[in-house]
Design goal:
heterodimer; A: about 575 residues; alpha/beta; Rossmann fold; 3 domains; 19 strands; about 35% helix; about 15% strand; B: about 170 residues; alpha+beta; Alpha-Beta Plaits; five-stranded antiparallel β-sheet; 4 helices; elongated
């Protein structure tokens, strides 16, 4: 329904026709007063599936999970006031992790705006710092253009969230609908190509390097540039570290993969990144969780920074060779240029050094025979049980379990590890898994969650069960807000404060059953393996409550304010605190 | 180091808020800000004076380019641009001091906008530095109230009017 054909309809119908024209197949939301006309239009018919969440925050994270699993724009819908404010956390999350998201909110009637009407809030105002752009639609005739522009802005340049706020009377007003073929945004001109001279300079610096490394961030996934990345790495035989956001963006079983840098990354990986003489940042932003103490990060290294967002260049670390442009053509051009310049065998000694570090600093933990189940073991088992499968998508919450998931799960494919990085949003895992399942119905979607995270969004188990979007939730249940416990343990002289959740309240398996899911409780390795095998094979929504040793801390670790190379290795801990 | 930046933006609701909110969020200091229409009714111009002690001008410009409503960002480099400010100053002026104040005003081309029994309101247009100087000179006479518009600026007639387009690739 584009171009010439015009049809009379109301604003709400126009929203749906616009979403259909954008090729949207699913949206996630929850109705309420000011968005009633849009839901009424859904009842009249649309090809877009609506997944009914139990909380708007859940809807937002589902849309994020969908976007990250599919590489397309996620769509979340909510009503005005509290419905809209409940979307603020997912919007902020999408902002920090550059997840393309279109949020559509109802607003009170135009003549009531500014009067403190029931369920009125200035959501466009509230979200200004965390959206790429937002629109308050004041004229029904603007709807097709605004929706077109919303999808365009969310998915071009550096991806991110946008918000469209539509007053109820605008949804009800009539228009002659036709969907525009093009969008007119004179102020929005993302770069289309990298500068050839800069690409040449980057290639020369890499070819001349003794110890080059690719430091890859989530941008490579948003750019759909993982093939180009792999070609570049292979042609010049460059080691690759992938950040939490880029996990799976380069095959982790590839010989050139050098692990994950940062606070709980591999010590060998941090060594590789910090002792390099040329660091090529690819869609990465020198986040403090990656760099550690900034002044001690990769000292003396030449920084080549490839990014679509010019504002990331030299924001944190001065770039010696900046290349602003979309990563797909930039990486392709860089690989092509390097193919001519590269000296065979030049990086062999450096790669050998990195593999020595890898052997010197393996991941490790200790477990007494017959002792409590160790959290690391949960992840090891999950990895074992899914090894070799290419149809598994992981999501996580935030905290210790997330870091162990990063350390122990091996992801060889892009878009198979979906996690909240920049904002660190506890409770992200379950709704993100539901969204991922909607994007990848063929996949087995497993959410590795913490017991704290689980209790923030577990109501969405109802969504998973009723919408037939089955997911497996594995709770690494240590009975505590584990990462907070770790920090209080290590940096606050063991003054444990307000962190105890207990292993058994709620009874997670019983709660799962109350939501129509299968529930399992495991306290030993044997019980856990049995439960995981059954859960993964079930095709149902399952919760596996793995009760683990609460004393276990996540290592290695860059202590706050320390240099990345000064990581603390595994410390066996027999904590003073009694086990609950 | 302080810089004056000229920003062209779409004349749309909330566009100015997006700019000022970005400054607040990123901790950039705005010394003065003046906004108004341009030769095109659908485009506004903001003249911003920013303190770039801790954040580079380049970073501030790039963050502004990312705003969808922002069309162009140009630094008004000293020597290549004109800067003006309008000030209204209400100065105590008993009859005994009037002659001296009026003479001062003449030196600065300050117009007398209003005259009361005990006070004069001066209207002064000039470079921000002129306004500073005039303010200091009349202050000893009793500066009752002062309002300044904040500086506005434009590139000189001898310089091409176009700055670099928004979102232009670096380097």
């Amino acid at each position: 329904m584009t171009g010439g054909s015009r049809t009379k309809m109301n604003g709400a119908d126009a929203v749906l026709r616009s979403l259909e024209a954008e090729g949207v197949d699913v949206m996630f939301g929850l109705p309420g007063g000011s968005i009633l006309p849009l839901y009424d239009a859904m009842a009249r018919g649309t090809t877009v599936r609506h997944v009914l969440a139990r909380h708007e925050q859940g809807a937002g994270h589902m849309a994020e999970g969908y976007a990250r699993a599919s590489g397309r724009v996620g769509v979340a819908v909510a009503t005005s006031g509290p419905g809209a404010t409940n979307l603020v956390t997912p919007i902020a999350d999408a902002w920090m992790d550059s997840t393309p998201l279109v949020c559509i909110t109802g607003q009170v009637r135009s003549q009531l705006i500014g009067t403190d009407a029931f369920q009125e809030c200035d959501i466009t105002g509230i979200t200004i710092p965390i959206v790429k752009h937002s629109w308050l639609v004041q004229d029904v005739n603007e709807i097709p253009h605004v929706i077109k522009a919303a999808f365009h802005v969310a998915s071009t340049g550096r991806c991110g969230p946008v918000l469209v706020d539509i007053p109820r009377d605008v949804q009800e007003a009539e228009l002659e609908f036709s969907y525009p073929a093009e969008v007119s945004l004179p102020g929005w001109k993302p770069p289309r190509r990298g500068h050839p001279r800069q690409i040449k300079a980057a290639a020369e610096a890499i070819a001349a390097a003794e110890r080059p490394i690719l430091y890859v961030g989530g941008g490579v996934l948003n750019a759909h540039a993982t093939d180009e990345l792999r070609e570049l790495a292979e042609v010049a035989r460059l080691p690759v570290v992938t950040t939490l956001m880029a996990k799976g963006g380069f095959p982790e079983s590839h010989e050139l993969h050098a692990g994950w840098p940062g606070m709980h990354g591999g010590k060998w990986s941090n060594y590789a990144l910090n002792k390099a003489d040329v660091v090529v940042a690819v869609g990465a932003r020198f986040d403090d969780r990656v760099t550690g103490k900034l002044s001690a990060f990769a000292p003396g290294a030449t920084i080549i920074h490839l990014d679509i967002d010019a504002a990331e260049i030299s924001k944190i670390r001065q770039a010696d060779v900046p290349v602003v442009g979309p990563l797909k053509p930039v990486l392709a051009a860089l690989g092509k240029t390097l193919a001519k310049d590269v000296v065979p065998g030049r990086t062999d000694a450096w790669l050998h050094q990195i593999s020595e570090w890898r052997e010197q600093f393996p991941l490790r933990y200790s477990a007494e025979p017959g002792g409590m189940l160790k959290p690391q073991k949960v992840l090891e088992l999950l990895q074992e049980l899914t090894a070799g499968r290419d149809d598994v998508v992981w999501t996580t919450g935030v905290g210790q379990h997330q870091m162990w998931a990063m350390q122990y799960l091996l992801c060889d494919r892009p878009r198979t590890f979906i996690t909240s990085g920049g904002l660190g949003t506890m409770g992200y895992g379950i709704p993100a898994a539901i969204g991922a399942k909607a994007a990848r119905p063929d996949a087995t979607v497993i959410c590795v969650d913490g017991d704290g995270c689980f209790q923030m969004t577990c109501q969405e188990l109802a969504t998973a069960a009723l919408e037939e979007l089955p997911i497996v939730v594995v709770i690494v249940n240590n009975g505590y807000l584990g990462m907070v416990r770790q920090w209080q343990d290590m940096f606050f002289e063991e003054r444990f404060s307000q962190i105890k959740l207990t292993h058994s309240l709620p009874d997670y398996a019983a709660l799962a059953r109350a939501y129509g899911a299968l529930g399992f409780t495991a306290e030993s390795e044997e019980e856990l393996e049995e439960a995981l095998v059954a859960a993964i094979a079930s095709g149902r929504t399952c919760v596996v409550d793995a009760r683990v040793d609460p004393r276990e801390r996540c290592f290695p670790m860059i202590p706050g304010g320390a240099a990345a190379v000064d990581m603390v290795e595994y410390v066996d801990t027999q904590s003073e605190v009694p086990v609950v | 180091m302080k810089h004056t930046i000229s920003v062209l933006l779409e004349n749309k609701p909330g566009a100015l808020t997006r700019v000022t909110s970005m400054f607040a969020r990123r901790g950039y200091n705005i010394e003065s800000l003046a906004v108004g229409e341009t030769e095109r009714h659908d485009v506004s111009r903001i003249t911003l004076r920013v303190d770039c002690e801790t954040h580079s001008l380049e970073q501030i410009e790039k963050q502004m380019h990312k705003l969808v409503n922002v069309l162009r960002v140009t630094e008004l480099a000293p020597g290549e641009s004109l800067e003006r400010e309008l000030a209204l100053l209400k100065v105590s002026a008993p009859p005994s001091a009037r002659a001296e104040l009026m003479a001062l005003g003449e030196v600065f081309n300050a117009r007398i906008a209003d005259l009361g029994p005990d006070a004069i309101v001066f209207e002064l247009t000039g470079s921000p530095e002129d306004v500073d100087s005039f303010e200091e000179l009349v202050r000893p006479h009793g500066l009752q109230e002062l309002v300044r518009t904040g500086r506005i600026g434009l590139t000189r007639a001898t310089r091409p009017p176009r700055g670099k387009p928004a979102q232009q690739a670096l380097a």
